[in-house]
Amino acid sequence: MSAPSNESDSREAKAARIAANPAGYKVCEGCDSIVGIAVVLCPNCHSYRFDPAPESVRKQALALGSREQTSVTAGDLS
Questions:
Q1: Digits of tens for pLDDT over the chain (78 positions)?
Q2: Domain span at 22
Q3: Residue among 46, 57, 51 nearest 17 (CA)
Q4: In a domain, 60, yes or no
Q5: pTM
């Protein structure tokens, strides 16, 4: 089942914004989610290890933005 186009566009747009400003984000080493630079614990897996390298953030943003969401996030549970 594919995502509605507006959801897909939103995901791609978010990925593009992150890729354009990778210094404001970091990649969780527990679940590969992208979180804001100020986050201490990943809201998805509660890991505390992150990769803040801009190239890692950019690469992960482009990868996540090019496919449908497959993980369950905290927002999905509320």
A1: 444 445 556 888 999 999 999 999 999 999 999 999 999 999 999 999 999 999 999 999 999 887 676 666 666 666
A2: 5-68
A3: 57
A4: yes
A5: 0.75
